[in-house]
Amino acid sequence: MITTAESIDPMADLWSLLARTLRIHRKQHRMSQAEVGRLVAADHKTVSNWEANRNHPPVDALRTLDATWGTGGLFEALHHFASTTQAPAQFLAFAEYESLATVLRINGVAFIPGLLQTPAYAETAFTLEGLPDVEGQVAQRMARQAVITRDGAPYVSVVLTENALLVIPSSARLEQLTRLTEVADLPNVTLRLVPLSAGPHPGLVGAFYLATTPEREVGFVETPARGRLVTETDDLRRLTVAFDRASGHALSAAATRERLREMIEEHSNDPVEEVQP
Fold first, then answer.
1. pTM tops 0.70, yes or no
2. Whole-number Cα distances in Å, 239 to 101, 161, 195
3. Structural domain tally of the chain?
4. Are 213 and 155 in contact (CB under 8 A)?
């Protein structure tokens, strides 16, 4: 299907919102695509592609439109956030629900969930993904973690497959394991490990979040690409069942804390590598 300006969903991501906003403002100013093109040294086909989100306008062109249409820097701001914010719109929407949640349920498989990560772990994760502005991404993730310690913090239940602990980079392992024990000791958090001995279990289907707010329940399923916001009743039921079944394979909260402390002690006893001159 060929993407057209009419088919753009402004809720899909920030580039789509920019494309739709550009088209709306052009029409409000009763200008053709050719006339906009002459303003920014581009032809009408290029402007058409911008409005259909087939390619992205350069920031200099958007600054010209901001000045011409008196938008107060709107287009430049949209370009900035579309260029630097890697979280898709669906995750940004879930993050809003997360901040309002009274109950959070988290199923972690291959990686430590974002709400439990240390800065060093998060930096490694973002670097492996090849994302720009790693420092900014880490800062956003750390700020997001305030949800579990704020006044009126939600009850947080985490089921974490032990595999995720085995692939923590050695340079970040001790700090990350310590962080997990600290979170596990919080009165509003229940952290349970699914040991390797459990073998295949329903939680291995993938990482996901469930957020219960005063208004509704939503989920977010992580994928290597974009992830998906889950709002349909049947899909939410499936995630809830998967979480409960994975919980059935997990250690108790007390046994989990003991296992984490054992791993910290094991790592503390690892030989220190000598730096060769």
1. no
2. 17, 16, 21
3. 2
4. no
131 and 99 share one domain: yes
> Which of 48, 64, 84 represents a domain boundary (last residue)?
84
Residues 109 and 24 occupy one common structural domain:
no
Q: What confidence tens digit (pLDDT) does each residue in 2-60 have?
A: 456 677 777 667 788 899 999 999 999 999 999 999 999 999 999 999 999 888 899 99
Which of 91, 58, 59, 72 has its CA nearest to residue 25? Answer: 72
Helices assigned H by DSSP within the chain: 14-28, 33-39, 44-51, 59-69, 74-84, 89-100, 119-129, 134-144, 163-166, 170-184, 233-247, 253-268
Spatial contact of 69 and 40, defined as CB atoms under 8 Å apart: no
Which of 69, 84, 99 delimits the end of a domain? 84
Q: What is the CATH number of the domain that holds 101?
A: 3.30.870
